[in-house]
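Quick one: structure for this chain?
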Amino acid sequence: MNVNLCVKSSVQNYSATAINSTQYEQKNNKTFSARNKDSVEISQSGRLASTFDLDEDTANRIETAIQNADIPALLEEFKEKQGSLPVDEEWHYRKIVDPDGKIYSLTYAESLLRQYQCAENTITAYYAEAHQDNLSQGSITDSMNYLSMKYTKFGLLMGSPYYRADMSEAEREMALRQEKALLLGGRVTLGDPYALASSGGTINIKDADQIAHQAARDRIDELINEYKRANGIA
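Got it. Here's what it folds into:
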């Protein structure tokens, strides 16, 4: 409900004072009763006029405007207008669907985990054939000796037929590290540019962070849309 007071600015200041004065009188003297729970009752127009040196017509208009103002409705209208602003609306619905931020945080963490698990799976698959070849050598000791013959200078000096001269020194060092981890039941390192070359290279922390944040935002947006559909909000 809109309230339009067509008075001078000085009168507007008077009206605010009048309300405060009247509320004080109502609290202490209880000479005026509220018309209903949604309305505000003030002093008679004659008292307004005499107290604040207003003409009777102005006092009447101020009294009528305030008495007709549905304060709760105006507050709700104000809240709705605030909620229509993009930032306020986003914050409002985010607080509804994820009040403590746990969903956002969990989704972010899960996205990071998926990215690293995907990289780990790619690396494991890359060395799978070599890992089976290593296992076929027999005991763990035999398999470790086999790795040494393939990737270290000892294999080169020994003239091992298994030495991987076709690989760079850095690639041999990485292969030794990864295949040894698989052989001993450890975790492969994710900083393997050779195994991850076909999937875009090693994980960039900044990119992974951005992807995870986007996944979290998408999840919250999804929950907001579900909430709106369930409550008939366009």
